[in-house]
Amino acid sequence: MKQTNMQTSVALRFRRMTRKSYGAFNTMHRIINIGTLTSLALACAYTSTVSAQNVAASEPEYNLGEPDKELTGVTVTASKTATPLNEATRLVTVISAREIAQTPARSIQELLNYVAGIDVAQRGAQGVQADVSIRGGSHEQIVILLNGINVSSSKSGHLSFDFPINLSDIERIEVLRGPSALIYGTGAFSGAINIITKHSAETSLYAKATAGMHRLVGAELRGAMTWGKTENSLSLSRRSSAGYRTNTDYEIYNALWQTRLNLPAENKMDLQLGYNEKKFGANSFYSAKYPNQYEHTQRMIASLRGDLGGERLRLLPTIYWDREYDCFELVRGTTFGQNHHIVNNYGAGLIANYSSLLGTTTLGGELRYEEVIGNKLGTPRAKPESYYTKFGSRTNVSLSLEHTVKLDKWLISAGTLMSHNTLLSGKYTFLPSVSVNYHPLDRWSFVATWSRSMRLPTLNDLWYTDPVHKHGDNLQPEYAHSFEAIAKYQTSHVEAHLSYFLMKGSNLIDWVKFDPTETVFTSHNIAELTNQGLEAGLALRLGEYLPFLGDAGRLSLDYLYMTQQHRAPGVAMSKYALNYLRHKFTAQLAHNVGSRIEALWALRYQDRVNQASPFATLDLKLDYRLTNHLRAGLELNNITDTQYADIAGVPQPGFWLSGSISYSL
Fold it and tell me: N or C: which end of the chain has fewer CB atoms below 10 A?
């Protein structure tokens, strides 16, 4: 409420467009707060615009059942280039805070399971460990970002999700399908996932307690406050379980501090400091031959990121540090096959985004240094210390240039990334990208994108050896050419997209056996492969047409179909590159039960090449509003008690019931 001269004005927040003719009239004499989406590209650099599926603005943690207000004629932009949402040149799925609160997931990995284009191969349940990949790529071929900062593990993609985030901390998750090297660098071989946290202090306190089967217990606490020109928040959590089978117990700790300094003229600086720790039984995680494995990981992150400048020129300076600690025991409680490693990733970058009558030009640069000390990775140190007898390092330098121009109903973007790594002496790689968006009608848009991508071997690929693995020699980067064509349709109540994608990869890196009788897997550049397929999505807001479903009534359907042709001479067994999803279908139905209960049903069906048979799981989340501040939740995961394994020899949980109670102020 804002009072001026004895008149009262109501501040409204609009979260979606309706295209109704009276939209502008309804805004007269009101303060308008327009919810906008910062694009996936913008989160790291103003280099590309993206389209959002399932778009929603950030909301308080439990704003369930509140109907969205509507506004027409407002251009909701997906980047600072002010490109209308339906004219963007990229396809990105956005999972909003409201959708996260509704979903029966306990971790980011489980949440991503409901996105058809993502393959989540879980080892440990509820966020302990999972390999996440996009459209047939491996878990090493995507970039994971936290508020635009690269937090992907340079040691191994198995550890890329070891960062200090609770689901209640998240404002939205943006998933970019397809190569995005021009935006995020060489690691974004098949896609990127950007997790954006809440900075606003609208909710000053949030607390949650959880308990469930398999001695599951958990607690979360989040506080936020505004002090002067800063917005500050602190999030703490602990979660543990005795495990759903032998040697699957775990403990997970998270701590995240964030400060946003708001400067004049919409400038700002963001500071984030985080700590994550996991201790877990790793039953057959990496080899069925040794079921009694155990792992202890720690992750510390620190970053400072700015958003500075004026209307024409914006600058995004970034500096960050990411420390990974990993202690792995091949046989729990013994030194057999034990390894210890500390990895430090240091990075600094600057993005300059200039807008003129000729379009928008973006120039970016990043310097990233990676080092590892331990007993497995690297080369022998001159002065060994305890476990840390080896050392390895590498430096990557990248420069990017992109220009975007709008011509009537066309939006065209083109650019290239130049990359150099010290492991490839004297070699410079150029990764071009071109995107075209044609917007013939108000509700329709058509997009075509071509790009080239590259990925360097991880530190494990280069140096790791144990009784069942052995690194190869002279590993080289892997490359791909990719093409995608997209058709999108959007109204206030219907969102749909259909995409055809094609990726031709060469020099692919994988852990393989050339003879089934071999006792170890070896890392090699082994394959040329072609992934192609179709992806379709449909989201319907049903509440207005089917009132019995309530204001929250929503149905989302997504489907992925993919085929692969490969040439891998002599390979008898492949761990990752040749294992992909042929079919994946997800369906989510949200509805109200009376005035105080909201329910969400989530169905997942998938058919993987290396699985004996397809399987389906059904989950349910019930949320009961006791008061405006107090809520109770019930999660029923795998209601059908389906027996399945994402990774051979690592069965996943059957039916798992848990409950929670939360308080927000």
Answer: N
Reported as half-sphere exposure (CB side, CA atoms, 13 A), residue 577 has a value of 28
The CB-side HSE value for 561 (13 A sphere, CA atoms) comes to 5
Residues 6+ apart with CB under 8 A from 319: 303, 304, 305, 347, 348, 349
Quickly tell me which residue has 């985004």 as its tokens.
353
Is the sign of the CA dihedral 132, 138, 140, 141 positive or negative? negative
Max Cα separation, the chain? 85
Distance in angstroms (rounded) separating the CA atoms of residues 102 and 186: 34
Phi/psi of residue 79, nearest 5 degrees: -165, 170
Burial of residue 359, with CB atoms counted within 10 A of its CB: 0-12 exposed, 13-18 middle, 19 or more buried: middle
C-alpha R_g of the chain = 24
Taking a C-beta distance cutoff of 8 angstroms, is the pair 506, 519 a contact?
no
**CB neighbour list of residue 223: distance below 8 Å, 6 or more residues apart:** 204, 205, 206, 233, 234
pLDDT band at residue 181 under the 50/70/90 scheme: confident
Count the helices and strands in the chain (H runs, E runs).
Answer: 5, 40
Does the predicted model carry a pTM greater than 0.85?
yes
Structure tokens at 433: 């990208």
Which candidate, 302, 346, 343, 344, places its Cα nearest to that of 326? Answer: 343
Q: For 592-607, what is each residue's pLDDT tens digit?
A: 998 899 999 999 999 9
